[in-house]
Amino acid sequence: MSGSMARRRVLLLSLVAIPLGLAMAGVAAFLMDLINLITNLAFFGRFSIEHASPVGNPLGLWVIGVPVAGGVIIGLMARYGSQAIRGHGIPEAMEQILENRSRIPARMTWLKPLSAAISIGTGGPFGAEGPIIATGGAGGSVLGQLFSTTAAERKTLLAAGAAAGMSATFGSPVSAVLLAVELLLFEFKPRSFLPVALASAVAAAARNAWGPTEAVFAMKAFAPVGLADLSFYLLLGVVVGALAVQVTKAVYWIEDTFERLPVHWMWWPALGAVVVGAVGFLEPATLGVGYSNISDLLNASLPLTAVALLCTLKFVSWSVALGSGTSGGTLAPLLTFGSGAGLILGTLAAAWFPSFHIQPHLAALVGMAALFAGASQALMASVVFACETTGHVDGLLPLLGGCCAAVMTARFMARNSIMSEKIARRGIFVPSQYEADVYAHTSVSQVMETDIRPFPAETPVGEFLAKLAANDPAVCRRQAHLLTDASGALAGIVTRGDLVKAAEASLPEGPVLRFGTAHLVVTYPDESLQAAVEKLLRHDIGRLPVVDRETPTRIVGYLGRAAILSARGKLLREESDREPGWLGNRKSVIPPPRAKSGFTN
Question: Which residues of the chain have pLDDT under 50?
């Protein structure tokens, strides 16, 4: 695709992202109203969309039956509607991007939010943000399928819808974009970044116009953090990062346990809901989204015993429910566990080490972001999310330190995150590093071969084949040879495959060009290697003549596979070849390149 065409497509996607952001803001508001309606009906028997919490319900022991009823409905919807509604949605979206060209069935745009509303409204210990993100992704994918788009463009729209859903839920447009980049886009390019950012901004603006504008998790201010205090938050990040790994392992262990049950998976959500209901009877605050619990933890308004009990019971309820395959999210529960762990550790550290200026409520904030960062591996999204949802940009320093420590610890202890473990088990590789394509910033002139010896196009094919049979280096050194006319201008190219066909024709008479091709695809010295590789792939060929841009028949080089791979080899050597230092010896992992013989071209 030409540069001008690519820019027009980015502009078009950006324009489409604006109504997509508005639509997802409406979907988010509708889903929250639907959750409130089902909560009111299930726990209080009233028809209302006013905010409601299962806490204070008058059901007594009958409260156990409410999540079970919801689990039965979810199981039926999954079996007869779509199994894709199971889980929290982000791994499923990642799988569609990586394996299905970002195509999500249209029915997911209503099945996922409806199933999530039923699950959460009947007491499921989940946040609404995961299903909203999944619904937004489905909406963006479906929108991309309505028109003629590429898989990359559908991925952009999928990520734009997902980011808009998160932005509309929490009023966190920047972290929503970062989450899309880190978990869905697997790239950082203007073609994807701009539409996603626009959709997220529009969704946040719509939320401000239609609903509350204050921070979702408003918390009291805290004092600036010094160097000595930062050491505590780094240590806190290490502890919480290790906790994130254990949380992930526990969830998938429970999921594996359900897999071994001699019961059809349709009934697993109902079985898991028995635990949800029992825990909810003991501690009603574990039921439902629990955003108020996070606010209480961030403001350190609960005694430590209550914090420990709430987080433990919430974890039991959530991990069993999620492992059972019901519909729900992970973000709000992870925020609850992280803020609880941070508050407990911060309070104890403040009591044990009074010389440090440790602030328990700041420790709760760092713990909240660090657990999400360690579990999801979305470092920057976690840091910025904590700032946006609390309105405290001054928390960036301890948040960045704590989240970095958590991610490093989690990466050291486990290969996959809570988001990628499920699809990694299916043999799907999830990218975790984003770097500039070495081919995009390498020119053809930097790697092309200049020691070329073209053959006259009129050379008899029999003579050419005789040299090939005799292993003449002049002929055998490459898989293809450039051909020139009497004036030395580029006339064509002949490959070894062409010569094999000539041999099968019993050495017919005629020039070698007869068996080659005169309709050439060429590249230029100042062209990027990426553009040259695209030509190879588009035309299904293995090498390109390099010609002067002003005089396209003048040969200046030859670009084969070995030359192309040499650019990647240079990058690998830069990353692994240790140069001599004051205290150590040089150690090379990647061997140096061979001389440009061209035998593999």
Answer: 595-600
